[in-house]
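Section 5.1 Outputs to date
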Amino acid sequence: MKFRKGSWESKVIQQNERHQAFLDNQVYRVELDLVGDLQMSNGDPKRMLQDDCHVEHIHLTQIPELIEFIQTPFWRHPKLTPSTTKEEAELIPFEEKKWGRYRAVRILDRISTD
């Protein structure tokens, strides 16, 4: 939808675009401390993700999800890729999923792409 130049509607669109550009350009170096999840794996070490601590570069918008995974377990599977659809992921048997959660998420520093 086109708005008259200088109208409040066009200013809202410009403001939203500036905010999104800011979010897209803020990259942080984050340390993720991963542990296997006992509950979802029913204590089976074969169904737990291996404890790991590593550093990733992530966008500002991803931080809330990482913090959520301190409280909520998540799973991984070799067949699960970024291109996997939700329907394909749902076909992976529960018994094959490896479960984990983050023990800690540490923001180390900001790597801005401004």
